[in-house]
């Protein structure tokens, strides 16, 4: 699972969606691996406005990346090639191959196995839709 | 059709387990995005972030590399096949319990998926769940757009030949080729004309555009806002 993905997923439990504690989910026992991907600075530049920066800072911190700037890069900072390369490497080239994503509200742990996170809920946590 | 109590268990047996079994052969036969899907995805502005709910083998992830898509499928075997398509991402999730925040995304697609839900309430809920994830329109921005496709009852020129008046709830065979061919049956609800639009309306969506393409009904919708 690419690190960027964690910025766009949350707990699958309906009641957790309204709790600020459910986002971002927290990585536990994460094993990281790098997979090279062609550097496309335009892609990073265009996606950054959609990133929840606070959440990304928390994720980066949990995964042991050097601290990200306090504020989201904007304007000229988006022209800085090193910044774009660092973000490309963290967001798109770093994968979590094994580990868990844990909800800060309900504590449910979603397993990541062989690079894929599984958000299916056990029946006691799911809604019943007839 | 499933009884109300057992919709989930019924789909587990008659949809999810079948896709797990046929994932590889199914994927080998699905490689070309449909024209309306292609048009929808290529019209997105670069940097848009969206969902592909029920992505199957990920054939629609090949269309646009300038947007970022979080794809999901209920079948882990299909989700693993979809994983190869860069720069996107794939997870395993259920359409009725999507692991995504409200109002976060620019767009979503769900192609040939909602017809696998076995009751009217579950089909409407599936559409509502997708609509929940996209941005509603505001004075400063357009609402997020959702493209949904479902298999049509009206397909009298197809191999199956069904048409108006035929039963809408069906078990459809899939023959897995190989040394020992094996037949699996998947549950489908075939949509009649106007039904997809009705479900979208009931799910809190406003239909912007809709039509028929190659044995399927499709619609593009956005969440209703207060005044709509």
TrEMBL record, chain A:
A molecular function GO annotation: protein heterodimerization activity
The keyword Zinc is annotated on this UniProt entry: no
Primary subcellular site in the record, as a coarse category: cytoplasm
InterPro entries according to UniProt: Trm112 (IPR039127), Trm112-like (IPR005651)
Signal peptide: none
One Pfam family from the record: Trm112p
Keyword terms, alphabetized: Cytoplasm, Nucleus
Subcellular locations according to the entry: Cytoplasm; Nucleus
GO cellular component: cytoplasm; nucleus
GO terms (BP aspect): rRNA (guanine-N7)-methylation; tRNA methylation
Sequence similarity: Belongs to the TRM112 family.
Protein name: Multifunctional methyltransferase subunit trm112
Organism whose genome encodes this protein: Penicillium salamii
From TrEMBL, chain B:
Listed Pfam families: Methyltransf_11
A cellular-component GO term for this protein: nucleus
CDD domains (UniProt xref): AdoMet_MTases
A Gene Ontology BP annotation from the UniProt entry: tRNA methylation
Superkingdom field: Eukaryota
InterPro entries membership: AlkB_tRNA_MeTrf/Diox, Methyltransf_11, SAM-dependent_MTases_sf
GO molecular function: S-adenosylmethionine-dependent methyltransferase activity; tRNA (5-carboxymethyluridine(34)-5-O)-methyltransferase activity; tRNA binding
Segments forming domain Methyltransferase type: 51-136
Keyword Nucleotide-binding attached: no
Keywords: Methyltransferase, Transferase
Mitochondrion found in the keyword field: no
Xref: PANTHER family: ALKYLATED DNA REPAIR PROTEIN ALKB HOMOLOG 8 (PTHR13069:SF21)
Protein name, entry field: Methyltransferase type 11 domain-containing protein
Organism this protein belongs to: Penicillium salamii
């Amino acid at each position: 699972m690419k690190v960027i993905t964690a910025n766009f997923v949350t707990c699958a439990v309906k009641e957790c969606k309204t709790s600020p504690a459910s986002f971002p989910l927290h990585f536990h026992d994460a094993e990281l691996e790098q997979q090279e991907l062609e550097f496309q600075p335009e892609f990073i530049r265009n996606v950054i406005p959609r990133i929840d920066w606070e959440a990304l800072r928390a994720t980066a911190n949990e995964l042991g990346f050097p601290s990200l700037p306090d504020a989201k890069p904007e304007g000229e900072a988006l022209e800085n090639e090193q910044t774009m390369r660092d973000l490309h490497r963290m967001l798109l080239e770093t994968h979590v191959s094994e580990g868990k994503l844990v909800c800060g509200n309900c504590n449910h742990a979603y397993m990541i196995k062989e690079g894929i996170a599984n958000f299916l809920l056990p029946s006691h946590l799911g809604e019943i839709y007839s | 059709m499933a009884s109300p109590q057992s919709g989930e268990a019924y789909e587990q047996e008659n949809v999810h387990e079948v896709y797990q079994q046929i994932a590889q052969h199914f994927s080998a036969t699905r490689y070309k995005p449909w024209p309306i899907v292609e048009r929808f995805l290529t019209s997105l502005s670069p940097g848009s972030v969206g969902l592909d709910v029920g992505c199957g083998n990920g054939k629609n992830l090949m269309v646009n590399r300038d947007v970022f898509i979080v794809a999901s499928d209920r079948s882990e075997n299909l989700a693993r096949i979809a994983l190869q398509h860069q720069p996107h991402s794939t997870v395993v999730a259920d359409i009725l319990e999507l692991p995504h925040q409200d109002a976060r995304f620019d767009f979503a697609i769900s192609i040939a998926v909602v017809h696998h839900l076995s009751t009217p309430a579950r089909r409407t809920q599936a559409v509502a769940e997708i609509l929940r994830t996209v941005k509603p329109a505001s004075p400063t921005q357009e609402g997020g757009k959702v493209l949904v496709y479902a298999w049509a009852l009206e397909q009298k020129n197809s191999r199956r030949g069904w048409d108006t008046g035929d039963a809408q709830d069906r078990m459809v065979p899939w023959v897995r080729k190989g040394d020992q061919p094996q037949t699996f049956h998947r549950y489908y609800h075939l949509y009649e004309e106007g039904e997809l639009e009705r479900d979208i309306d009931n799910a809190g969506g406003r239909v912007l555009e809709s039509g028929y393409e190659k044995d399927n009904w499709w619609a593009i919708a956005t969440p209703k806002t207060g005044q709509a």
